[in-house]
Amino acid sequence: MARTSRFLRASPDSWVWLGTALIIFLLDQVSKIWITGAFRLGDSVPITSFFNLVRVHNAGAAFSFLADAGGWQRWFFTGLGLAAALWMIYMLRSHAGQKLFSLALALLLGGALGNVMDRLLYSHVIDFLDFYWGTWHFPAFNVADSAISVGAALLILDELLRVRRGR
User: Fold this and answer.
1) What pLDDT score does 64 carry?
2) DSSP string, 69-137
3) Disulfide check for 14: which of 7, 10, 53, 89 has CB 3.0–4.6 Å away?
4) Domain range spanning residue 87?
């Protein structure tokens, strides 16, 4: 009898979390496809007094870190994202019963893969959510970045709760 791959023998909970990551990834990619079809680079449409839809490209990481580094950062952040994704898949399979921890990892995984896909396809990440106050604009971001931010916050919350339970 053929041996079933260890990945395919993941627990049902693991599949829920991997499915959650897939949904985040797909929402991110569909939103970016819509933005690239509806907006030219640099276009901006006011939605409220504090929010615009825009189309900007970020060759760097968060807050355009290393955006002007000459191109090597594309492969560095792609490799880093893929390595992190593999680690998160392993952790999701190992800790699928820990709901808050697994939700955090699923959000991080879906977001990381969304931005990795952009780097592979376009050499940059497509951002389009622009929040501002007066003339100050928060750096534009996307669905993947939002999922990563919420996932990171949930990871911190999970750790704080874990420490508190340990007392």
Assistant:
1) 54
2) S-SHHHHHHHHHHHHHHHHHHHHHHHSTT-HHHHHHHHHHHHHHHHHHHHHHHHSSEEEEEEEEETTEE
3) 10
4) 12-166
Q: What pLDDT was estimated at residue 71?
A: 58
With a cut of 90, say whether residue 128 has pLDDT above it: yes
Q: pLDDT (tens digit, 9 = 90+) per residue, 16-65?
A: 999 999 999 999 999 999 999 999 999 999 999 999 999 999 876 555 55
Query: Looking at the annotation, which residues are catalytic?
Result: 127, 145
Give me the half-sphere count of Cα atoms (radius 13 Å) on the Cβ side of residue 48. Answer: 7
Q: How many domains does the chain have?
A: 1
The model's pTM = 0.84
Q: Are 104 and 158 in contact (CB under 8 A)?
A: yes
Question: Does residue 3 belong to any structural domain of this protein?
Answer: no
* Cβ-proximal residues to 140 (8 Å cutoff; 6+ apart), any chain: 54, 56, 58, 127, 128, 129, 130
14: DSSP letter? H
Question: For residue 78, what are its two tokens?
Answer: 């792609």
The reply to whether 2 falls in a domain is no
Q: Please check whether residue 1 lies inside any domain of the structure.
A: no
Q: What angle do CA 40, 46, 48 make, to 5 degrees?
A: 150
Q: Considering the domain boundaries, does residue 7 fall inside one?
A: no
Q: Give the tens place of pLDDT for each residue, 93-113.
A: 888 789 999 999 999 999 999
